[in-house]
Amino acid sequence: MSLKQKIKDTTLFTDEDKIAILAAVDTYASADIKALEGIIDEFDMVHSKAVSEYKKSVSEVLHDIVIKSSLADQKKLQRAASLVQSGLDELLQ
Amino acid sequence: MSEIPKGTQFVGQADARKLHTERVKPAETKLSPEQQKVAEVMQESGEVLEKKVVDAREEAGKKLQGLHGKELVDAGKKQMVRGLLDTVKAQVKWAIGGGIIGATLGAAGSRVSGGDMHDAAGLLGATWASGSAAIGGEVSAPLAYNKKVAGSQELTKVGWSDWLISVGSRFAIGTPITLLTMRYLPLAAVQLESHVFQAILNPITVRGLRNVMTGLRELKKGVSK
């Protein structure tokens, strides 16, 4: 992925920052460009890992509830679990 | 016709003398064991997530400030503030996910059959409370922002009710507080409010919260007695 695309996709910067950085990025020295890319990569990796871990924890407890429920309840609980998970996906996108 | 004693409450009539919280029977607001488990995990893991993201943001902010390029240095300086903003945003989310939801779900599940309208009301209440806690709410996030976000082709559609809540709550909550904010609060507070309200009042977030709330409520309804 190109640096410009990384700048657009990252949650590190605000929209205003992204516009300013994208407009100026071609004027940066190569050392700064490399460092910027490293900073974005590192932040995005930590962010994505932390979000995944959060979702995993919630998914595990929901899954546990569904499998430990009676057969009669499982369908309804699975639907409830899916709703919670899809909601979290949207909140944490 | 005999005279009706003053203060008599008729069947189906709301008792306006009591607060809403008093009118809900305690048993109805109790979380089921399943809801309790999920709420606890959401709260605990949410705090861990929040800390990791804020730490990573601060770390990145320091490094950005060491680079050349005014935009990068400015973005770096903002990270410390954004750390705070994200904390507020995260607290709003986790409070709704793990706490406020718990207080509203039991009553909602047993008293309202449809759900969506109560979700809307609950969400507005929660939004109001959290927004106020985060220094009120200058609702400057314009409609154009929502159109840009929700209208993007990569995103799935949001329901009309999500739009209604998003836009309606901006006007209802925003206008008076904006006036107060402009009158009494410093610029930093305005920026904080703006960020929080952009985050929690865009229709995607509203829909996400609605799904979490509905799912948690159905978790209780889904278990046979």
Descriptive report:
The complex is a heterodimer of chains A (93) and B (225). Chain A is elongated, with a radius of gyration of 20 Å. Chain A is built from 4 helices and no strands. Helix content of chain A is 83%, strand content 0%. Chain A has one domain (3-91). Chain A is an all-alpha fold. Chain B has 225 residues and is mainly α. Chain B has one domain (31-221). Chain B is built from 8 helices and no strands. Chain B has helices spanning 20-23, 33-65, 70-111, 116-133, 143-150, 160-184, 187-201, 203-221. Chain B is elongated. The chains are: A mainly alpha (93), B mainly alpha (225). Chains A and B meet through helix 2, helix 3 and helix 4 of A and helix 2, helix 3 and helix 8 of B.
Descriptive labels:
heterodimer; A: 93 residues; mainly alpha; 4 helices; 0% strand; elongated; B: 225 residues
In a nutshell, what does this entry contain?
The complex is a heterodimer of chains A (93) and B (225). Chain A is mainly alpha-helical and 93 residues long.
Anisotropy-based shape of chain B: elongated
Sheet/helix structural class of chain A: mainly alpha
| Alpha-beta content class of chain B | mainly alpha
Number of strands of chain A: 0
Number of helices of chain A: 4
> pLDDT average of chain B, as an integer?
60
Number of H/I helices of chain B: 8
Question: SSE order of chain A, as H and E?
Answer: HHHH
What is the percent of helical residues of chain A?
over 70%
Low-confidence stretches of chain A: none
Overall tally of domains of chain B = 1
Measured distance between first and last alpha carbons of chain B: 45 Å
